[in-house]
């Protein structure tokens, strides 16, 4: 799909995300990232989404739908895969440092390539698993859309506490919320609206104390 068409699709989608105000350079970086992802995906199978026009909705707009809820200048994206939601959030907030954590070597190689090609000095790809990751400095928040359930996410992140967790989910996960241990404080469950996506999306915001 031509870059101009991708840019138009992104422009249209962003108009449906209140509070997400991106400049021309940021929009250009998002399109360039998507083009790199589409190219690498053919050989490395980085994402199950194959069409670039679908990636605009399911990757870029989905990631940016949480932008107004995620606070802090040091963010860890756990199980980032192809850099989602970490890279869109890093582009949207250039002053934020985003550590991109994944256990897959091929995905980390892709993320390092993105960092070099796009000059994104505020992203830091690291090959590791969350439960065994040792951070030199505390994070303001840990975000993920990769964990299967909230309990698994909180258990893996607990060794980095105190920290705020942002879990991207589909339907409101009532049963998972009820299973959370007492050392997890649920601050809110935000209903998200992703332009062009006819599916339920929610963001669970939690705090894990030390």
Structural account:
The chain is built from 7 helices and 7 strands. With 210 residues, it is an alpha/beta fold. The protein has a single domain, classed as Rossmann fold (3-Layer(aba) Sandwich). A 7-stranded mixed sheet has the order 3-2-1-4-5-7-6, with helices on both faces. Helix 5 links the parallel strand 2 and strand 3. Helix 1 packs across helix 2 and helix 2 packs across helix 3. The longest helix has 21 residues.
Q: And the CATH topology?
A: Rossmann fold
Question: Strand portion, in percent?
Answer: 15-25%
Taking strands numbered 1, 2, ... along the chain, how are they ordered across the largest sheet?
A: 3-2-1-4-5-7-6
Q: How would you name the oligomeric state of the polypeptide chains in this document?
A: single chain
Which value, in Å, is the CA radius of gyration? 16 Å
Tally the helices: 7
Could you say how many structural domains there are in total? 1
What is the CATH class name?
Alpha Beta
CATH homologous superfamily designation? Vaccinia Virus protein VP39
Please trace the helix and strand order, writing H or E for each element.
HHHEHEHEEHEHEE
Q: Strand pairing plus helix content: what structural class?
A: alpha/beta
Net shape: globular
DSSP strand count: 7
Low-pLDDT windows of residues: none
The residue fraction in helices comes out at 25-40%
Précis, in short:
With 210 residues, this protein is of the alpha/beta class.
Break the fold down into its secondary structure elements and pairings.
Layout: H1 3-14, H2 24-44, H3 52-64, E1 74-78, H4 86-92, E2 97-102, H5 105-118, E3 123-127, E4 141-144, H6 150-157, E5 163-169, H7 174-178, E6 184-192, E7 201-208
Parallel strand pairs: 1-2, 1-4, 2-3, 4-5
Antiparallel strand pairs: 5-7, 6-7
Helix pairs in contact: 1-2, 1-3, 2-3, 2-4, 2-5
């Amino acid at each position: 799909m031509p870059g101009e068409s991708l840019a138009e699709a992104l422009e249209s989608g962003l108009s449906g995300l209140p509070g997400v105000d991106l400049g021309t350079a940021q929009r250009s970086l998002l399109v360039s990232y998507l083009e790199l992802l589409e190219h690498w995906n053919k050989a490395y199978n980085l994402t199950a989404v194959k069409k670039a026009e679908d990636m605009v909705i399911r990757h870029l707009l989905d990631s940016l739908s949480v932008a107004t809820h995620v606070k802090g200048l040091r963010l860890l994206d756990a199980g980032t895969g192809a850099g989602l939601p970490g890279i869109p959030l890093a582009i949207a907030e250039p002053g934020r440092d985003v550590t991109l954590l994944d256990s897959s070597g091929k995905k980390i190689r892709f993320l390092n390539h993105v960092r070099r090609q796009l000059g994104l000095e505020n992203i830091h790809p690291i090959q590791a698993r969350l439960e065994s990751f040792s951070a030199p400095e505390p994070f303001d928040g840990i975000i993920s859309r990769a964990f299967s359930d909230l309990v698994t996410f909180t258990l893996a992140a607990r060794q980095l506490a105190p920290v705020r967790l942002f879990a991207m989910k589909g339907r409101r996960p009532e049963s998972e919320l009820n299973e959370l241990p007492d050392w997890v404080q649920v601050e809110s469950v935000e209903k998200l609206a992703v332009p062009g996506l006819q599916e339920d999306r929610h963001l669970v915001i939690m705090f894990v104390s030390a």
